[in-house]
Design brief:
The structure is a single chain. With 64 residues, this protein is an all-alpha fold. Helices cover 73% and strands 0% of the residues. It has helices at 7-20, 26-39, 44-62. The two termini are 14 Å apart. The relative contact order is 0.08.
Length: 64
């Protein structure tokens, strides 16, 4: 069975865990959120998406 999860959900969960265990302050979380929001609106978004897809494919292929 294959389970797919979006990078947004994965990073959201990671950020929530960091906040829960107080490894990241509220101010840094807001900065991270705003950085991600504005980064997605730039021309770099397509390149970042391609890199993340390539990494996901590589991780998936490691088990085969």
């Amino acid at each position: 069975m294959f389970l797919t999860i979006s990078a947004l959900a994965l990073f959201g969960l990671l950020l929530a865990l960091l906040l829960r265990f107080k490894a990241l302050g509220i101010g840094a979380a807001v900065v991270a959120l705003l950085f991600g929001f504005y980064l997605s609106r730039t021309g770099a978004a397509a390149s970042i998406d391609q890199v993340m897809n390539a990494l996901a494919d590589a991780v998936r292929d490691v088990g085969n």
